[in-house]
Amino acid sequence: MKAWISSTLVAIVVLGSATAVQAKSLSRIIAEMGLSPADFNVLSAASDAMLAGSVPRVGEESVWVNDETGSKGTIRVRDVRDNCVHLQHFIQPEGAEQSREIRTRRCRDAGGNWILTP
Fold this sequence. Notes:
alpha+beta, five-stranded antiparallel beta sheet, disordered N terminus
């Protein structure tokens, strides 16, 4: 009985933590990465340009730089599955010595638009 209660409590704590992580806003995630909202706009424009026109190919890359802040990065198409493109971002915020990696996914909606999805 004690083992069952302990397992249940652990499961509740783990699920609660996962929910808290999912609830983090995009703006909060961007700030924690060291990017400004302007940096994110440049990154988004580069991502949009990669997806404009045809379906991107695995390995395709795009480089972006925010001349105002000095932040920069590279976006790489990691995978294309169904109506979704998995992107790998190597971001170097202004003042950072090393780049950071994040991964995003964009999926096409019924209108053909690429939407950032979890």
